[in-house]
Automatic annotation (TrEMBL):
Residues 1-23 are annotated as: Disordered. Pfam families: Lactamase_B_2. It comes from Pontibacter mangrovi. It comes from the Bacteria. One of its GO terms (cellular component) is cytoplasm. This is Metallo-beta-lactamase domain-containing protein. Residues 101-294 form the Metallo-beta-lactamase domain.
Length: 338
């Protein structure tokens, strides 16, 4: 850790490998993580403006009853092929080289927000999970009930998480092993057949009144000799996509957030709309594009079917290659890429 006189520090896990040459660690200012070099504080006045303004797509949204399809079953849990399976919102089951990962585990209703669509199986059927990948600690990405349910059925599971998330994880389950990483760091808890890196995202943190940006946020890359997979977490559009591609090469699979983008005055700095997600995917030189962060919870003003409709239009225009829109519970096999 390096400290300057103006309460600016750079933090990283000193035990872990840092893959960006010369990178000192994540910048904090007065104990709060910066988005790169600058602090980002979501303004309460923008939230108030949103609550007091009328959604121009209100009637369209009320008429839109879209929800993602759900393929029921547990076959994917017993299939040893490399695959990913969307579980809704930002939760994916991923199997690579015999290891299993579950991203941003949120399997139930959120506080004051009901889940609109079910799971392919019950949460207690999600077994043989090796690692939880936690991109950040917003409640729609890190849910206490979900983590506790997963740990009950997977006592061997470990969490790969951002810097300063340890206290929160211990409060969720004191027996959950975890490892924290800063941006551009490689976790060393993972067996050699899969490399896991924590990388930048343009976002922020808050779970309570007094913890604004006290815990880091980010994205993940999972890398084998044959395949590189990118999980974006939550992010706005920024220059980190180009930097990730330069460090780790083209992304064979990109799991990209495409929902919760309206109104743009509130959402633009921390979420991607479909056009921005495709721009980021092209900066990553992506192969397969799998959308997420839509259709599961009502968090914003856009009609629920709009993200899928826009992605299909972009694919038809040739701007987006490799679009896959799986149902919840539908395996996307990764073996053909090898």
């Amino acid at each position: 850790m390096q400290q300057n006189s103006n309460n600016t520090r750079h933090l990283k896990n000193e035990r872990l490998k840092t893959i960006k040459p010369g990178y000192r660690g994540n910048k904090t200012i007065d104990g709060r993580f910066a988005n790169g070099d600058e602090l980002y504080t979501p303004g309460f006045e923008k939230v108030l403006r949103w609550q007091l303004s009328r959604n121009p797509q209100r009637e369209q949204k009320q008429r839109d009853d879209y929800t993602p399809l759900v393929h029921k079953g547990t076959d994917f849990l017993h299939d040893d092929r490399d695959m990913l399976v969307w579980l809704g919102h930002a939760s994916f089951f991923i199997r690579l080289n015999g290891l299993t990962f579950l991203t941003d585990p949120v399997l139930y209703d959120l506080p004051m927000v009901k889940r609109k669509v079910g799971l392919p199986c019950t949460p207690d059927q999600l077994r043989n999970i090796d690692f939880l990948l936690i991109s950040h600690a917003h409640r729609d990405h890190l849910d206490k009930k979900s983590v506790r349910a997963l740990h009950a059925q997977n006592p061997q599971v470990k969490a790969l998480a951002p810097l300063r998330s340890g206290d929160l994880l211990r409060s969720i389950h004191p027996n959950l092993p975890y490892q924290e990483a800063g941006w551009f760091q490689k976790y060393d808890l993972v067996p050699d057949q899969v490399e896991v890196y924590f990388l930048p995202a343009s976002h922020w943190h808050r779970r309570g009144l007094l913890d604004l940006n006290k815990v880091l946020w980010g994205s993940f890359v999972l890398k084998t000799p044959d395949l590189t997979l990118y999980f974006a977490g939550d992010t706005g559009l920024n220059n980190h996509f180009t930097e990730i591609e330069e460090l780790l090469g083209p992304m064979d699979v990109c799991l990209m957030p495409v929902g919760a983008y309206k109104p743009s005055f509130l959402m633009q700095q921390s979420h991607l709309n479909p056009h921005e997600a495709v721009k980021a995917y092209n900066q990553l030189r992506g192969g397969i594009f799998v959308p997420m962060h839509y259709g599961t919870y009502d968090l914003s003003d856009e009609p629920p079917s709009e993200p899928v409709r826009l992605l299909e239009q972009l694919a038809a225009s040739g701007v987006l290659q490799g679009l896959r829109i799986p149902a919840i519970g539908e395996p996307v096999l990764l073996q053909p890429l090898l």
